[in-house]
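ENTRY TYPE: paired fold submission
RECORD: A
CONTENT: sequence, then structure tokens
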Amino acid sequence: MKVSLCTISFRHHLLSIREIARFARDSGFDGIELWGIHARNLGPGDHAEWLDAYGLRVPMLSDYLPLDAPRETLAEHMAQLCRLARGWCAPRLRTFAGTRGSAATSAEERAHVAARLRMAAAYLADHGLRLLVETHPGTLADTTDSLLRLLEEVDHPALKVNFDTLHVWEGGDDPLAAHDRLAKHIDHYHLKNVRARSDLGVFEPANVYAAAGRREGMTRLFEGAVDYEAFLPVLAPDAEVSLEWFGGSCFSILPADLSRLRAASARSSDVLALKAG
């Protein structure tokens, strides 16, 4: 398993990318998932070379494609992201499947989102990249049924899934069952947890992005409502995952969660090996 931290965890910190890289390296991470706004502010360049010297890579740029914007605006946005991804040698771009939940989206709106995602997937594929839609509330990927339908509607091999386990659970689906149905489409994972379903509001964008937002309810990976001990065995040994931590105490929580994740993954591998033997 390759595990990355997310630069979005440090959105309210005054840190350089090299300071984050040193922390990631010293903590034992394999890579850094780069938030789109951070990538844009760092600008183009051969960043992968110096990052490789830290033993790190960028598995994904996490951004928000303007699917409702004019085609020319979307194309310009993607062109910029392709240049940035090339500089970091990042193979994936994450986005959301629109800005409205599946139950609140009309057939016409759904067709528009699908068409724009098809356009984006084709554009990125021409540049050697894969486009990932994230399982997320308030989008057309808010339930497994809607996401599978969307994948069929887009019908492009470069469109994959960023499986956010917490948000799958938030949408009312069992993560294990959802994973089984989506397995062939999943290309990356976001892992985070919450104290209880009543605390899910802490992940609302208005709260997450606010420097003074509420963090109570965000928990360490193995101490929340989602059972990661039960979920991790379904992940392939070479799975690419990111610890998406939005709370405080990043410099203690992230290494601790990484250590427990490595240990749990090792136990799962041992169990699978015994079963195979």
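RECORD: B
CONTENT: sequence, then structure tokens
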Amino acid sequence: MASPADTVHHPFFARVWPAIAAHETEQMRQSRRENLAGLAGRVLEVGAGTGTNFAFYPDTVEHVVAIEPEPRLVERARGAATTAPVPVEVTNRTIESFSADQPFDAVVCSLVLCSVAEPDSVVRQVFSLLKPGGELRYLEHVASRGVRGGLQRFVDATTLWPRLAGNCHAHRDTEATIRAAGFAVDRTLTQHALPAWAPLPVSEFVIGRARRPANPI
């Protein structure tokens, strides 16, 4: 079996994402704040991008290890880390190739599970990196129903959307994947970041909190 890749390369996405991230709506920025609220201890962030989350970590967080597998985005993330309110260490790895000496109190996934090649194995890896009782915080766009769901399946299968958008797949049932990995979902809230009539396939987002169940006594 081949070893998992250490990095990924999406040159077009890496050029356009910094501009998109710099002009996020206030609604999305508030969603990021909500996703990180109340975190404490050691945190692993998967797919840090340009470090957009870093400014929103509460001071109860002791240390963040932020994984970003796209080399062109790493330097931007490291720049953002220098002004973060908590210590942030940025590493240029994939979650598939990442290992840790001790488990984390929480893992954060923001707009990343749509883009990994094998979401089931990635979420199982996240599960293994958490302490028993530790939390997964996720802010992800998810599969829609009806006409928009049909549009998502179409763009995933027959258009250049995944290639241009950093392997983004619009029609993924991310919460089903999280539950199947063994997580207990405590809280979930679905929001629309774009109007229902907007032509983009990604508009429905979910903010959720899930736990790795504590070991049985």
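NOTES ON RECORD B: The chain has a mean pLDDT of 89. Residues 59 and 86 are 6 Å apart (CA to CA).
STATUS: closed
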